[in-house]
Amino acid sequence: MEARALAKQVRISPYKVRRILPLIRGKKVDEAMMILKYSPQKAAGIVSKVLQSAVANAEHNYGMDTDKLRVVKATADQGPRLKRFLPVSMVRSYPYQDRTSHVTISVAER
Hints:
The chain is α+β, with helices and mostly antiparallel strands and 110 residues long. Helix content is 35%, strand content 38%. The protein has 4 helices and 5 strands; from the N terminus they run βααααββββ.
């Protein structure tokens, strides 16, 4: 049985989140939280909140022991893109896209 948590439309690129996820995949929850705590990336804070939510879901909804939990799955999928324009010289504009992510983390007892 797995408990999962999902954060949708987080305002960070999925490429940046995917750099953090291999560091915690397969690790115990305590160890994963320590890794995320001392990672300097912005994505580490977002992933940490989702991991805390997954642990709380496992404890509250399924009655799992939090000391035995491991990170089973961790994915970051692409969310909707926000289309924006940057003003540049001579009254022109430069289009760009703000990317968003859907972060999913599943934990299970092992």
